[in-house]
Design brief:
This protein is α/β, with parallel strands linked by helices and about 325 residues long. It has 10 helices and 16 strands. It has helices at about 40-50, 115-135, 150-160, 175-180, 195-205, 220-225, 250-255, 265-270, 270-290, 305-310; strands at about 5, 15-20, 30-40, 60, 65-70, 85, 95-100, 105, 140-145, 165-170, 185-190, 210-215, 230-235, 260, 295-300, 320-324. One of its GO terms (cellular component) is cytosol.
């Protein structure tokens, strides 16, 4: 018996249907994984609505999960049935069991439970590459994290703080502001209430910032650029408020020879050795206590539509986990 949440046409949460599907057999380079937990991420909304294109319809949503290997293909040598594993950036996670290429799986340390593993892979590895590779932060720097009370935001705040940064976070409500402070944000600004560039100028004594990490997109893009010091880096890694409209790149020159990048975890973990190294760094940060994964919502997997409604309404904080 195997069930999955499938989407037959793009649309709102109502297009997500709980259906019985065949239990797949792993190909030579694949493993069959029985999920114990599945992560919820905003990219799932992008695929559901059609903002991001899927290979074909119907499609099973979901990009990360954790569970136990039940079977492996004939060419798989580094995994065996019974291994605890986790993964991210592999479409098709909203199901009880699935096959996946074995080189996309990482072994989950015994000290990390399945719910934590499922909720941390995409968000945690995103935070890892943003802080360690896209713009490697240094102790003493002041940085800006948008959506600081979200899943990636909370991890970014904690990890950057542990690396010695001063963290400015933006959130949408006073309650979320308190959560961001509890997780490492030194200064928290309310979107739509605070004048972001003016407050950043005040906080930094006019120096402005070397980097802004922006997952909001359209609503914050221009203000983010205005928060940067000359030669600063704008990291636009999400579209929660909608895609950023076309930009005249001359504005980067006018605002101080700025750098702009639109990175994705898929690129940063495309090679198996990069995936392993990224996951290992994340696991170490969690095991050391520098980063604590906040699972603030859980839903039954069959109720994934409810989870999507809450996510889009900005009613969630931290991570959300779906339980098969």
């Amino acid at each position: 018996m195997n069930h999955a949440i499938r989407v037959h046409a793009p649309g709102g949460p109502e297009v997500m249907v709980w259906e019985e599907v065949p239990l797949p057999t792993p190909k030579p380079d694949e493993a069959l994984v029985r999920h114990h937990a599945v992560g919820l991420n905003y990219i799932d909304v992008y695929f559901r609505t059609g903002l991001y294109k899927v290979p074909s319809l119907p499609v099973t949503l979901g990009m990360e999960g954790a569970g136990v290997v039940e079977a492996v293909g004939s060419e798989v040598t580094d995994l065996r049935p019974g291994d605890r594993v986790a993964y991210a950036m592999a479409l098709g996670a909203y199901c009880e069991a699935r096959t996946i290429k074995a080189d996309r799986l990482v072994k989950l340390p015994d000290s990390i439970d399945f719910q934590t593993g499922a909720s941390m892979m995409l968000q945690g590895m995103t935070a890892q590459y943003l802080l360690r590779r896209t713009f490697p932060v240094k102790a003493g720097q002041t940085i800006l994290v948008h959506a600081a009370a979200g899943g990636v935001g909370l991890i970014l705040c904690q990890w950057a703080k542990a690396l010695g940064c001063t963290v400015i976070g933006t959130v949408s409500t006073a309650a979320k502001a308190e959560l961001a402070r509890e997780n490492g944000a030194d200064h928290v600004l309310i979107a739509g209430k605070d004048n972001l560039p003016a407050r950043v100028k005040e906080i930094t004594g006019g120096a402005m910032l070397p980097v802004v990490y922006d997952s909001v997109g359209r609503d914050t893009f221009m203000d983010s650029l205005d928060c940067l010091a000359p030669f600063g880096t704008m990291v636009s890694y999400g579209n929660a408020s909608g895609p950023v409209p076309p930009v005249d790149i001359g504005i980067l020159a006018a605002k101080g020879s700025l750098f702009l990048t639109r990175p994705t975890l898929a690129t940063y973990t495309a090679r198996p050795d990069d995936l392993t190294a990224t996951a290992a760094d994340l696991f170490a940060a969690v095991q050391s206590g520098a980063v604590k994964i906040r699972i603030n919502q859980t839903y039954a997997l069959k109720d994934a539509a409810e989870a999507h409604r809450a996510l889009e309404a900005r009613q969630t904080t931290g991570s959300t986990v779906l339980i098969p």
